[in-house]
Every structure is written in C-alpha cells, then in structure tokens.
Specification:
heterodimer; A: 417 residues; alpha+beta; 6-stranded antiparallel β-barrel; 5-stranded mixed β-sheet; 17 strands; B: alpha/beta; 7-stranded mixed β-sheet
Chain lengths: 417, 1037
Amino acid sequence: MKKFKLFACIVSAAGKEELISVAKDFSAKIEIIDGGVLFDISGLENLIGDQNKIAKRISTSLYKKNINANLGISADAETAILFAGNLQGVTTDTGHEIKQMFIETLGLDADIQNVFSAMGIESIEQLKNIPENDLIARYGQDFRSVIDLIGQQGRRTLVPNIKAQYVEWKFELEHSVKELERLVFIISSGVSEVLSETVQHSLSTEHMTIEFTFESQQTKSYEVKISFPTIQKNFWRKIIDHRISQDLPQEHITAVKLICHFTKPRSAQFGLYSAAKPEPESLHLTVNKVKKLVGDGNVGVPVLLDQRLQKPFLLDSGLEPSGIESNERADIKPQIIFNYFEPPIPAFVWVENRKLKYLKTKYFEGKVKEHGGIWRANSHWWAGFWSVEEWDVEVENHGVFRLSRKEREWFVTGEYD
Amino acid sequence: MSFVELHSRSAFSFLASGSQPEDLIAGAADLGMECIALLDRDNVAGVVRFHLAAKEQGIRAIVGSEITLDDGSVLPLLPLSIKGYQNLCRLITTIKLRSPKGEHFAAKEDIERHSEDLICITGGNDGFVYQNVKNNTGQEAIAWLKYVFEDRLYIELQRHFLRHEEYINQALLGLSHKFKVPYFASNGVYYKDRKDRDLFDVFTCIKNHCTIEEAGKLLSENSERYIKSERQMRRIFEDLPEAVEITQDIAARVAFSMDEIGYTFPDYPVPENETMDSFLRKRSDEGAIKRYGAITAEAREKLDKELALIKKLKLAGYFLLVWDISEYAKKSGILSQGRGSAANSVVCYALGITAVDPIEARLLFERFLSEERDEYPDIDIDLPSGDDREKVIQYVYEKYGARGAGMTANVISYRSKSAAREVGKVFGFGEETLSKLSKLVSRMGSSESTVGRFKEAGLDAEKSFRIQKYIEMYSRILDFPRHLGQHSGGMVISLNRLDSAVPIEPASMEGRNIIQWDKDDCAAMGIVKVDLLGLGMMACLRDTFEILEKQKGEKLEIATIPADDPKTYKALQTGDTVGMFQVESRAQIAFLPRSKPKDFYDIVIQVAIIRPGPIVGNMLSSYLKRREGKEKVVYIHESLEDVLKPTLMRTLGVPLFQEQLLKIAMDVADFTGGQAEELRRVMGFKRPDKKLKLIERDLRTGMTRRGINKDAQDTIVQSIHAFSNYGFPESHAASFALLAYASAYLKVHHIDAFTASMLNNYPLGFYTPATLIKDAQRHGQHFKYIDVNYSDYYCTLEEIDNTSFIRLGMKYVKGLRKDTGLAIENERKNNGPFKNIGDLISRVEIINKKEIRALSISGALNFEKTVHRRQALWESELEIKPKGELFKLINEQQKDPAYVNKMDPLKLTETDLISTGMTIGKHPMAYIRSELKQRGVLSSIEANNLRKGEVVMVAGAVICRQRPMTAKGVLFITLEDETGHSNFIVLPEVFEKYRSVIVENSYLLIKGKAEDRRMVKGLHFESVTNFTAAPPSHDFR
C-alpha cells in the first residue's frame, strides 16, 4: 500500500535561513529549492489536522517571523511547488486549484506554449482534457513529466540538501540554578551528546558555543575556540569549565544550550614524502599572539584589489595565512619590496623651487638626496572621487620612502626595501 | 619655439577617446598651439572634421593614424607628404580589406611595403616599442623600425605622472642613445580637458562590456591625458627640454596637408577621335531629339549653355559616368530617375538621367551648376530598393574595381536610446531599468528637461550623485561616434585608386566596401559622390507596371501615365492619399483638402511645403490663405512687384524654392547664377561668418545699382535670410511630384496592382500593411487569405468572376524564411498543389517546425477549408514528429478531435494580427461598434464631418503618434477604425496628464472638441478594449 505523503512549499523573497527555520519547526526533511523551501510534512495531519489546519499553523509561523510568502500544500511535491510558485497566499490542494491554473505556470517550452495558446488552451484543466496519447504523439515521452504534473502524479521526491554546519543540544532545567557546580553534569552530558553527533558526521570541532538562559529570559553566550580540532570529551569539558569560570553568570540559569561547530575537513599533513610545512595550529597560535599584541583588526591577510583604489590592497582580518608555500618559482628579476606604514607617518617637508629638500618625521629626518614624482592617481569619479599625489624620496642615511600630500599635509606612507 | 602635440586621439578611434576632433582643435586653439596632430586607430575617419576645424581656427592640422600590429600593439604613423598619406591610406585599406570586420592587423611586411614617406613615432603604453621594452625586446623592435623608417623614426616619451611610465622612459632614452634615434615629448592625448576623462572611462567600459565597478584596472589611473600647454610640457620634461623643442621640427617636417589629397574623377572611355565633351554633346543631342521630337531653339540654347559650362569645368566625365549608370539601369530593365538639383539641367534630362523637363517646369540651371561654385554638382539617382539597386551598385564596383569605388560611410553616433542604454549598462542598471530608460528617452521631446524626465522614471539626480553622473554622461555621450556604417546610397569613384585618397574597408553587408569618410567629408574634400538611392516607391511602381502588363496586358510607364487625370486630382483634393508617395502623411492629408491641388505644379508645391521649414516660417499658412483668397498676394515688397512677380507668381508670392531665391538675387541685384547659389549657401549657414557680410554687401550694392530703395532692400534681405532656412529645391520637389502623381494615378485606377506592389515592397511609406489593406478594402478592393496552394511568396492578383482579388503572399507569415516561402511556391508550381500538411512537409525539405506552425496559425494550411486553423496546427504538431508505423496508427486515430475548437471571429482577427501583422477580416473596432454606439462614441467617418466646437468621443486603434519638432510639444494621434482614420491633436499639458494612457494603449477612446481641418482636440483619454493584438503604430518617427 502506498504510503500517504504530504508536502509543503514556501516561496518567498525572504532569506533562506529564515525559511529553513520555519520549515524546521514542521519537518526534518527539507529541500532548498529555487526561491524557497520544500519540506515533507507527512504525518502532521495526525498531529495538527487536515491540510487547512497545517497551512494555518505554518502561516502563523511565517507571520510571527514576519515573512511574506506563498505557501502551497499538496500530496504531490511538484504541485506544492507549483502552488507556492504561482498562487498568492496559501493554497491547499482540493483538486480544483490546479485545474484553474494557467498553463503558463507549467514552464513549457515557448514554442509549445505558443501552440497551446493558439489552440485556445489556456488552463491546466483544458490541457488535461487532451488525451495523453495525443500529447505524447506530438511532444514525445519527455512530455510525460508535464502530464504527470498536471495529473498530480509527479515523480519528484524530496531530496534534503541542507548541509549541517553544527550540531546543537539544549536542556531546560526544572528549577533555576545559580551555582555552576550544579550544572557540571548537565554540561558534561551535553558535551558528550554534541561530540557524539559530530563523530557521526565524521567530523571534528575546534569551536563550541555555550549559551545560558536566565530567569529574566536574557541569555549569555560563551565562545570557546581552540587552535586544533579535537573530539576529546574531557579536554572540552575542562576548557569549557575554565572559560565559564573566568566570567561566571550572575543570574539564575533556566536553560543551557551547546552548539558544536564543525571544523572544515582538511588533508592530513604527515607523510613520509610530504614537504614540511608549518603546523596550522602553530600558525594559528602565532597569529593570535600577534593579534593580542597589535589588536584583532590589524592582523590579517592582504588581499590585492583589482580596482583603481587609493589603497591597492585590503587587510582581511577574517583570513589567516594558509601556511602553504607556493610551488611556483620566484621571478628571477630583482623585486622591490614596499612596506606600507599604517597609519601613515605625518611629516614635515622643506621644498625649494619645487624640489623636495629635507624630510622630518618623529622617527627619522634627513636631507632628501633624490626624489621621483609627482605621481598622481585618481578615480571613482562616479562615487566618492579620490585623488593622491605621491613622491619617492631618498633620505640621506635612512632609505627610500614614499611621501604623499593631502590637503597641504605631508605623510610618509611607506618604505622601499 | 613652441610645443606641438604630435600624438592625440579622437572619438573616431571609436570608444577610445573622450573628445571629438573639433574639440581637440578648440583645445589646441585655446592654448595657442600652432599645430596639433590627430592619429586615430586604423582610420582617418575624423581627419576631415579635424582639418576643417583647424582651418577655421587658423591652426595647422597634422593627420596620421595608429596602425594595429599582429601582436595587438600599435604603430603611430604620420605622412611626410602626399605620397606618405597615400601609403597610409593604402596600408589601412590593405589590412582592412583582407580580414573580416574588426579582426584586421598589419604584419611587419605590410609596414615595410607602405613605409615610404611616413614618419614613425613609437607611441605610448599600447605602442609597439613600449610593449617590446616591457618584454625586454626593445632593442630588436627599435632596430627593425630604424631599418624600415631610417631617419623618419622618433622615440616618443610620455609622462602622465605615473611611476611605472618613468622606467620605460629611461629605457627608451637608452635606446635613443644607442640607436641614435631622436626622441620627443608628447602627452598621448585621449581627450581635450581633464573632465573628459570620465567619458573616456565610460567608453572603456562600453568597449569591454563591463560596468564601471567591474572595470577595475581597465580604467585610467588619472586624468592627465588632456591637451597640455607648452608651459606644462616644459615643466614635465624639465630634465629633457630638447624633447619638447624638437616637436616643432618634426611638425615642420610633416609637410602634408589634407588640402592636397589630389582626388581626380575618372575619365569616361570614349571612342577614338572623340573627346569626352564631344561625346557628351552627341549623347545629349540624341537624347534631346528623343525627348522633344526636335530640338527647339530654347532647348538648343540651354543645351549649348550647359555643355559649354560643363566643358569649362571639365565635368564631362562625371556626366558621362552618371549617364552610363543610368543607361545600365535602363538596359537591365531597372527603373531609375534622377532627383535633386540635377533635375534643373536640360543635359541631364536629355541624357535620360532625370525625368522632369526643366524647360517646361521653368527650373533654374544655376541651382545645379555654376562657374563660381567650387564643388561638383550633385546628381542623385533613385532606383527601386532591393535587388535592382544592388545590381547597379555591383555594376559600379565591377567597372571601377574594389579599390576604385566605395560607398560613403555613415557615422553612427549615439542617439538618445543607445546612449541611455549603454551608459545605463556602464552604471550597472538592470535590464528592466534599461528598457524603461530606452522607452523614456525615445519618447522624450527635445525641449523636455532630461533631469525632470529621468526623475519621473525613478532616477532622481538630486538624491543620488551616481544618478547625477549617469545623466551627465548620458547627455555628454550624445552625438559621439560609435562606429562607421554605410550611407544609404552615396558612391564615390576615383580615377586613381580611391584608396590613395581615403582608406576603404569592408561594410557589414557582404559585397560592399565603404570609404572612411561620410558624405559631408567627401563634399568638403571635393570628392564626387553619386547617390544611388533605393526608393521603395520606385520598386512599387516597377512592380505595378509589371503586374499590369503581365496580368492585364496594359503597358504603362511613368512617362506614359496620363497627365491631368480628374479622378487622380479628386483623390488628392480630398486627402484620400494613403499609400501615395510623399503626400500620404498625416500632415499632408490634413492639408490637401485645403490646398486642393489642381495641376502638376500644385503637387510640386505640395511636396515642398509640408516640411518643417515652411511650417515654422509660417509660409504654409500664408500660402493657404492666399490660395483661398483670404490674403492679398504680395511679392515681398510692393515696389518690386514687376521684378519679382514672374519668379514668385506660381507660389503666390511666397518664396518656397531655392531656385526662386537664386532668381530673386539675379533679378534684383544682377547676381550671376554662381553668385546667387553662393548667396543661398552662405545664408543657410547656421553660424554667420565673414562671407555672409561680404555677399550681403554685394547684394545691396547690386540692388542700389538697380535703383531699389533702402526699405525694399531691407525687406528683400530679411526675406532671403528667413527663407534660406527652409527653401527646398524645386527640381527635387518636381522629381518627387512626378512619382507622387504616378502613385496617385495608379492607386486611383489600379488599386489592386498598386496595393499588391506596395505590400510586396514594404517597408515603404508612412503606413503599415495593416493600414494599407484596410484602406484598400474601404476602396472596394478584395483580398484572399494566405494559402500555400495559391499564395506565392509575394502578393499576387487573382481574377475570380471578373473581380480582382489580392492574394496575400507568404512574405507576411511571421517566422517564415524567404527561402522557405520561395521553395513552397516553386514546388507547387512545378509539381502541383499540396494535398495536406504531410505532403507539404515531405515535398519541401527545408521547411522547419516553427515555419509549419507559423503557416498553420496564419491560416495558410486550411486546404480549401477542409480543416480550420486550430485543426491544421494540431495536425502540424503531429506531422512534424518523426514518422514510424506506431505514429501512423496514432495519426489515424486523431482526426478532428473534439477538444480542437474553431476560433471565433474576434480570435481570428487577433490571430491574423499576431501571425501576419494584418487582417483582411473585420477591423477589431467593428466588434465593439454597437457597444460604442450605445455610449455615443462616433466612428472615424462621423468624426470627419463635425462642426467646430462640437464635443465628441471617438475610438479606434492607434496607428500613429507623432510629436514633430515644429509642433512645440503638441502630439498628433491618428486612430483607425473600420470606417477610416480620425486625427487628434493633444496639447502638451494634456499629454503630460494622460501620458501613460496614450503611450501604453493600442486602442484609445478619445473625448475631444472638434477643430477645423478634420481635427479633434483631445481632452480625455481612456483605454477602450482589451484586445491583445493591434495593428502596428507609426510612433514618434
């Protein structure tokens, strides 16, 4: 006996994440489709009631999340998609709705669509009146999918395609708790739970989030990041305990949530013939140490911009060096390295007969031996025009620097190495 | 010693410069430069404008070109002499003609072969040497150039305040010392001012098909490529002053000027013992005898006078060449007729080039040719558009060779629609916005505020700097050249190789070459152009004559059409002129019932008077009042009636024709023909100059000599000034009037053949086929539907029970290729009618699925009404599938299924309009006539008989929306229904109020107040039906 199925489809301009969050309230089987989500709601009729009641529940959920969407519900997945994609608001399947729909909604080949229009066939009901054989004889077996669709015999199945990025565990306490010691067992059990699930995904983690909900309904989160992925429960328990103890919650806790973020898989480094590379963990540690010293936003990877911009590169502090050496041979031509000073160093410049004579900064000063320039660059005349004037100067006993002038003020912007 | 900019590029490098050639000259003049050079990429298309603008500013223009090499770099070349210029033109021609359009390049051998008398400069960052220096092969590059150009090689140093440029400059200086090649300074100019860099960046984006945000490093690094003064250049090259100083020496070396291009018109080959003049005289005399029977004294005198002048001006070759083309046309059975000022010449008439007798029409020869005129006369030949015209063009190519003849170019410039779209793409607008913008600007009046209209479309410049920049760029890009197209008919022929005067390149159309100059450039450089113009009406007349001869046995040609036919004049007088050449427009139809042309000369006036000039100059209104006897006829000044009456009598004292202006000057001031023609030209200049003052002085001197008082003199000068802006050549009007009368006669007496021919030669004229058919039906003409068993590709006539029917041709089945239509026609004619769709498919192999569907929907596969359209279509869907036993079985089962319904009449009409763009069934408005009647809505015929001031409602399909420049924002709408046409005027404020209703609906109900001239002033507009198909409308053209 064929198992009874029921599908819901939401089509909306809202973000995918929002739609998925609604779908997750009703189903575990979710497929992201073009413009929305399709999810399997089979069995909900036992819990909620008929299609209309389920539709009402989903609509309420959408409304609460302030999502403007079309909803289609049908025992046939493609019909649900058709409804949500073409009919405004909520459409449940009584068998009549699809008949009234225009054939344009079927996404037929433009030539075939034109033929039907010329034939005066405008609705799906009219199309259904044409015997299957007549259609197949003209448009071949490929047209079977259209016939199945209008006959609500679609063969489409739902293919869950949401890739999990994390696993989550939540525990609501019967009585609120203030002392952390009383939560140790609960958190420990949660850690075991999320790590087991992580292992089930054949993955590891180097990042966990612990979230406490207080009596006041407010929440407090703790991010715990380590420099290498591991699934050792004891290690995570200790480090979480250590992290929380540094900043103890001040209110009574009513719920605990743990999120275990998956670490992106990477290839193992060890091997007899593998070239020695720095350990990602060491690199990570080094970068973090540097960050501690100079501030998070001042460390990152320079990304060269293929634009006419005042600064040719951007410091992406979200990125870390890959630690992978390039196999390409370095250009044999001599290279000039330029070090940018960030921020540029204010300077005093003595000019005589349009020649730069002397340069003074708080770090160095000296006679200008040679200078090249002016070099002028400007762009973005269509939005936020910028313009710079620069010189390259050789300062006696110091080196070669890049000097720029902005509204009568001078700056040393970097040094040639 | 002053600096000369030896390397600049103009908008004629196409999408690679931010300034027009004239702007560069203006920039150079502002800086006090004595000389400037223009080197556009692989062309000299902008050099004539550059040269003329330079002359005007008193600057010396150096012209050259940057040649693209096989590695993509460029080699800038400047001619030292005429020989160098010829080499440059031939080099460009060689590389352009041998490669597909846009893929040309010069190989080293090409440069070597054409290097004589050319100076080579090494160029900027896209230059051959620059690129080689970057690749460490600079020495080899310079060595080769030194070998080719010897002492004509100069190393170019450019400094745009860019760090990386200096490294190359130092390398170039090293090469200069090593190879002993002098160096010079240039700014590699891409635009006149700093501000033009923005436009240059926009062009870069258009060229690279990217938005300004995506363009990244394709954009300029700074705005330094503008024309710099000597002072600026000296400062930039402070360390190399000699680089600046040498520029003047190089400029002095480049002695070539565009004034010496040395174009010669070809000699016409004549028999031994004949000169071109004697040969021309013989041909003219022979022709005159044919034309006049015997040469009258007046004709003899005029012929002698003209031939003497032709001899003196050495123009016999030109006349013989045009005669030769005209003869070729005649021998090939191609209808041809000269137009333009050539119709003033008895020689042209005698040679059979023109069709209007200038003696009988009293046309003035001096308008065509005069001794004082420093340019070739203009002879335009009208030919039937299409294959016949192509035959004549190919004849000229064959006779003078691919490098001896070429079509003149047409500089395709940015117009509002293309500008809005392309600049919009650069600014990253989506397709929806782009379409909206295109529509908006194409319907925008010239007087409307761009910013205001864009604001209405949601682009508010006040709110966004980006939109402000968009609108600025849109306005600035207008009129910039985009590419070279082909002129509609201008052919240039040369005795020497034409590619010695101007490069030739392939046109997009196969078998055609174009020169790199447009018609104005040719005229300025004294290059003779013969206009071989395609005229749809000529093709229509040819086809009508052919049908009449073949199907009705009636032989007729333009010359034998009976003159003064009363029925023809009646049609003209009532404005019943849809389809008639030159007199069918909305404005003509409104004017004809008032002017009521009674003879041929009235038609000549009619053709000339409905033009922007006479309308704006109020001449139209004056002429009408005088014709209706409501205004006294005066001849400019009362004291001059005796002198001017003979000249102005035929136009009731209203000066209308250019020839009249010439005659006035000759009569009142004893001007010679040449002086008078010069007066006309100078008066017509947009910007008055010294010449105007001089010629006006001569005019007044002449009038004083004739004793004309100051008051009368002032009136004459004033009147000539006003008139010079709108005067139309009488000869041209006469040639067109002849065709207008012929078309009117044919429409009145042979509407079947004439309408069929019009449909076969569409596009032509003012109206769409849908309107032409409805008009013919109202005149009693019957039509038959398209049917594969009866229709040819073109429309034909069928005689059934003594009634002539027009059988529509398969040409009108949308989606049917011409080859397929002809194949169906041939197969049927050779092997008999088709039995059914399957039979058609099996016998006409090239037919495809889409074409079968198109034929079914258009009703062409109804097979004697055995099936209706939907049945035919449904059957076609089966027939176009692969065949097999199984399908045959299905085929048998599917005869006349119940779900295939016949279309109702309205659906049929709608399908006709969609599938063929026309219908021979009921007019769509007829379906709702009773409903409209109930609402008190009038039909067109009723609306044309109203009393002034009556308030009415009229409804119909919109077939024309026009906003002429002369109408100060007033919109004219023409509605069509089953009874005819009705016309409406819409004042600007009313149009603004109902803009979207008027512009977006194909069927309108207009409430308005009747005006005179069968015109209703529209006051309220609404959509009247929801038909999905409508006859096409002639909008805003």
